[in-house]
Amino acid sequence: MGAGAARARAHEGARRALRRFIVSAVLAVVVTGCGGGGDGAGDAKPAAVVGRMAPTFSTTDLDGRNVRLVDYRGQTVVVNFWASWCIPCRKEFPLLARIDARPDVAVLGVVFNDTIANARKFMADQRAAWPGLRDDGGIAKAYRVGPGIPASIVIDPEGIVTVRHIGEFSSVDQLVGLPTATKSL
Question: Which CATH class name applies to 58-173?
């Protein structure tokens, strides 16, 4: 065998070793639960899981007023993650207005990767009456949202997550768990 063939065989062996390493690394990530998983016991912060208590948060709205999720206990809350640049978010804003018009439901719009100025302008243009909330990423992380939006999480009056809807919703009925409307929408 010549020197060229020996080099080719050595190169092929190195490529196989690299492939084995990559497969092992991927398996290690999957087995240890890269994105979370398990029952959440021991996690530093709880994640929004249907049937469990919603992660609490405290932040400010786009006008600097303090907003705490706990202040909405006793009513159904829709936490909606959105951005002014997100076309599906724009499409569902009229539906959020219909939901927000219900007397027993509060909508909290968490601004996701957008500027305060753009978010404020978009909410004003849409005549959104619910608070737009600032997020440094902590709320989105606790609610397991991103990178794709929109996302809507329904929390019942006792603080339990009842719905996680990732992506655009096209009808109010998609957010099962909302109280029946008591006035015309």
Answer: alpha beta
Q: Phi and psi of 71, rounded to 5°?
A: -70, -15
Residues 14-44: pLDDT tens digits? Answer: 555 444 544 343 333 222 222 333 333 333 3
141: Cβ–Cβ under 8 A, 6 or more apart, which residues?
45
Domain boundaries, the chain: 1-34, 58-173
pLDDT interval class at 86 (50, 70, 90): very high
Q: 141, 164, 65, 153: which is closest to 109 by C-alpha? A: 153
- The whole-angstrom separation of Cα 11 and Cα 14 is 5
How many Å is the maximal CA-CA distance in the chain? 87
User: Contact at 8 Å (CB) between 59 and 161?
Assistant: no
CA 176 to chain centre: 17
Q: How far is CA 170 from CA 54, 87, 94, in A?
A: 24, 13, 10
